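Incident log, support desk, overnight shift.

02:14 A customer reports that sequence design results differ from what the structure should imply. Their input is reproduced verbatim below. On-call engineer (initials T.W.) acknowledged and began investigating.
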């Protein structure tokens, strides 16, 4: 039996790596094209596959009550490479799934390199893929090379939409002053010691807010001006400018924490740092994405109690994030309507988040594999996290106002269950019921495919 022609994947991030794995596991040969290190990006630091350029967190791992946790579980049940690598390189993060970023990337890179049906080509695809590539998946993410981005824009007739994604600073643990800081998770969840906490009193907090607003920022380039931010990843100074107490009710809220150094005094705000590597030597500042200059970051962040002598392994920054108008341009199996030999996967489709990007890559790979074998791609049920996310990207969202979206229960079909009093269930009970329905429907779908 002749081996099928290879599927070409452009981009070796989380989505591209997951796509390649799903195809290869279905006995379809793959050529994975990654432009690093031939051409660098503004955010990547290595040439490793699936490098994490922002946080090291995959967010909540609670599959009963949280939509992204449910997405984790669905991907595990399907055989996701990204979830396998994440689980193998997990670091403490309370109820969240956070990973050692280097170990995670290494695990994905080794798996891809070791698969006999995957070839990795280190080269930039500077324009539309060659016409003799009859099945192509573009998974170039938010840092698509300009020539390819221009070619996509010309083909679709759409102007690329864009927003700024932000990177939080990382601090060396041994430079933190633990006579002022302490370990504790909010409300002592999980082992209760997954975060480092730095308290600010009212005066200190207000001085900090003023410094954030007045601090020198990195100038936007001409092509970055007037680009909207993604609301789920705002720079901390932008949040501060929306009101003096915005941060105290957001990433710096003091609830569920007690300062063991001064238990009788209530902090006005608390900065939390989360473990960033398996060794526990690096901690990132939760919610501290920023456009401040490097010098201002050091000056202002060292006014935080416990961080006066902080040494930074990485300072914060922002990069532009580009995505296509999925509901307008893609069909229900992620193919480009204007050129069906091309599929899209990952953040470039308008999903937001590591897990969501990998999930769309997983689906693109399975769809392309089915097509290569002469079959028809089977979409996951709309009641699943995978199906809800896919539905949003390919038509569930309003094309006129399309913006990046994390997976959430608002994307799922409603569920009408009532309690013993005949009242419609709400809150956690409703989320639990939707999660249970999702996993049951996922199981039925997988059995049908088998």
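02:41 Re-run completed on a clean worker. Output:
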């Amino acid at each position: 039996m002749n081996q099928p022609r290879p599927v070409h994947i452009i981009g070796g991030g989380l989505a591209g790596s997951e796509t390649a794995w799903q195809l290869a596991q279905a006995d379809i040969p793959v050529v994975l094209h990654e432009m690093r290190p031939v051409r660098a990006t503004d955010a990547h630091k290595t040439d490793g596959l699936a490098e994490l350029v922002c946080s090291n967190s995959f967010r909540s791992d609670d599959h009963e009550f949280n939509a992204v946790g449910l997405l984790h579980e669905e991907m595990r049940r399907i055989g996701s490479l990204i979830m396998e690598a994440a689980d193998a390189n997990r670091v403490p993060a309370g109820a969240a799934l956070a990973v050692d970023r280097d170990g995670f990337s290494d695990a994905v890179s080794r798996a891809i390199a070791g698969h006999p049906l995957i070839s990795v080509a280190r080269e930039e695809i500077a324009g539309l893929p060659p016409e003799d590539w009859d099945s192509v998946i573009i998974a170039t993410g938010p840092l698509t090379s300009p020539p390819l981005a221009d070619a996509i824009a010309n083909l679709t007739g759409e102007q690329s939409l864009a927003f700024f994604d932000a990177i939080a600073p990382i601090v060396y643990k041994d430079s933190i002053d633990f006579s002022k800081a302490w370990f504790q998770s909010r409300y002592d969840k999980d082992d209760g010691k997954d975060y480092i906490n730095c308290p600010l009193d009212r005066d200190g907090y207000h001085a900090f807010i003023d410094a954030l607003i007045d601090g020198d920022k990195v100038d936007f380039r001409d092509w970055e001006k007037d680009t909207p931010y993604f609301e789920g990843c705002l720079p901390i100074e932008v949040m501060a400018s929306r009101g003096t107490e915005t941060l105290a009710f957001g990433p710096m809220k003091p609830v569920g924490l007690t300062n063991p150094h001064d238990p009788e005094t209530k902090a006005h705000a608390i900065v939390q740092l989360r473990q960033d590597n398996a060794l526990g030597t690096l901690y990132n500042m939760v919610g501290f994405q920023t456009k401040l200059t490097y010098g201002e970051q050091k000056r202002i962040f060292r006014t935080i109690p416990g961080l006066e002598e902080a040494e930074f392994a990485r300072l914060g920054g922002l990069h532009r994030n580009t995505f296509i108008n999925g509901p307008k341009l893609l069909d229900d199996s992620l193919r480009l309507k204007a050129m069906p030999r091309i599929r899209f996967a990952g953040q470039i489709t308008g999903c937001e988040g590591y897990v969501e990007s990998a999930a769309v890559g997983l689906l693109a790979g399975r769809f392309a594999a089915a097509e290569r074998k002469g079959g028809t791609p089977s979409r996951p049920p709309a009641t699943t996290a995978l199906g809800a996310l896919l539905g949003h990207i390919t038509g569930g969202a309003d094309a006129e106002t399309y913006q990046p979206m994390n997976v959430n229960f608002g994307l799922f079909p409603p569920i009408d269950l009532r309690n013993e009093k005949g009242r419609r269930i709400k809150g956690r009970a409703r989320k639990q019921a939707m999660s249970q329905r999702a996993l049951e429907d996922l199981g039925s779908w997988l059995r049908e495919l088998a």
